[in-house]
Amino acid sequence: MKVIKFRHVAILEIDLQPCADVFVFTVNGGVFEICGKVFEIGEDLGEFKKGILILKKTPFSVECEEGRCLAAKL
Fold this sequence. Notes:
The protein is an all-beta fold. A hairpin with a 2-residue loop joins strand 6 and strand 7. The relative contact order is 0.29.
C-alpha cells in the first residue's frame, strides 16, 4: 500500500482487485477496511475529504466524510 496525503487530499494505491465499480470503505486512523479486507499502514492519516484510489491500476475517485469514503470508478 502506498499513501500520499496533502492537506485534505489523499492518493492511495493498494495491490487489491476492485470489488465493484462503486463501493464504500472506511478509514480509522491508519486502518483501512476495503473490499472485505483490513490494511494497517502504521501511521494515522487523519481526516481527508477527497482523493484518488488505485486498485490494480484501476483509478477511483474518492470522497470521504468522517472516515466513511465512497469510491467510484473513473
